[in-house]
Amino acid sequence: MSRMLNATQFRAEFPSLADSVHLASCSQAALSSRLAYALQEIGHSLRAEGAPWQTWMEQVGRARERFARLIGAEPGEVAVLSCASEAAFQAAASLDWARRPGIVTNDLEFPSIAHVWLAQRQRGAEVRVAADTGENVAAEAYEQVIDERVNLVSVPLHTYRNGARLPVEDVVRLAHDRGARVFVDAYQATGVVPIDVKRLGCDYLASGSLKYLLGLPGIAFLYVRGGMEQQREPELTGWFGRTQPFAFDPRLLDFPADARRFETGTPPIPSAYAANAGFDLIERVDLDAVHEHVSALVEELAQRLTEDGERVASPAGARGPQVAIIDPDPDKLAARLAERRIWTAPRGDLLRLSFHYYNDRSDVDAAVEAIRDCRRT
Ligand SMILES: Cc1ncc(COP(=O)(O)O)c(C=O)c1O
């Protein structure tokens, strides 16, 4: 195994940071040398092998194994899909709303996931919303809406809006006590927050590669506890959802006894290359050290922005890898920062500034000074 990287060595893997300040990992990670090289590797596979299915399948298989290892799961508990919405759909479609119709969600959920839950109403589901405080959702709010009619409870590990950590362990306990399953959207955590699905105890967990996992859009992973937690068989399927994808029997609809049963058609192969480039780096860091490094930068930025009179919307005591500030026109503020090559991520009424192991205190300085400057002029 290659040597482990400290924060300075990790930053050196991202030459793109020489002329930019990347505070947008909650949206898309910075470009690493590994990723740039991986994109060339796809071209090389085509030149060298013509139709390189075997090589491509190895890339997909490696991405599955590495995601499984990252979250403390078995490879057979992970399906490789194209986006988190598809992962949410596969979880929803595996449940029988006629038995228990309830789905619990909340307004800090990424809309794409919430929309999948809402769309289940045409199949008989009833959607309930756990009330939020504007910044977070308390376990008590879940307690009020989970009862014996609820089949699925959905909770992000960290919300995309302001990075806040939701009380997932409490929600899992409440849901399981009342016989419901739990779907965790970990997109805003994987890569910078250590995760152990067995400790979380959730039934489903979804994430993708473009943000803190340092890859590109187009690939997502669905963890399914035991590989086949389900009340119904998948309806969205395809040849990669078969026991033997290369058997080519149009009359045989069999489902493997693991999470591959949730897969559909041709996997997202270029994005699997990109995901593996990300894992090449993520596997060379100590995630506890990354978490500590990122948390220190977040706290420093939150404090300095507060001192400057900014309204920080990421709640103290539950902050994740980002600091969100309230702004009347965050797109405009982001555009002004982008003029200085400071990449941030505006959403709704918030400007989000997020950190990875490649960020350092010079990035905090740059953000504070630039925002101060933008307020002046
Ligand atoms: C928490 C969270 N979930 C999901 C997504 C993406 O969902 P999808 O892969 O369906 O586009 C994002 C961001 O893009 C996100 O921040």
UniProtKB/TrEMBL annotation:
This is Aminotransferase class V-fold PLP-dependent enzyme. InterPro entries: Aminotrans_V_dom, PyrdxlP-dep_Trfase, PyrdxlP-dep_Trfase_major, PyrdxlP-dep_Trfase_small. Residues 43-365 form the Aminotransferase class V domain. Keywords: Aminotransferase, Transferase. It comes from the Bacteria. It comes from Nonomuraea maheshkhaliensis. Transmembrane segments: none annotated. One of its GO terms (molecular function) is transaminase activity. PANTHER family: BLR3095 PROTEIN (PTHR43586:SF15), CYSTEINE DESULFURASE (PTHR43586). Pfam families: Aminotran_5.
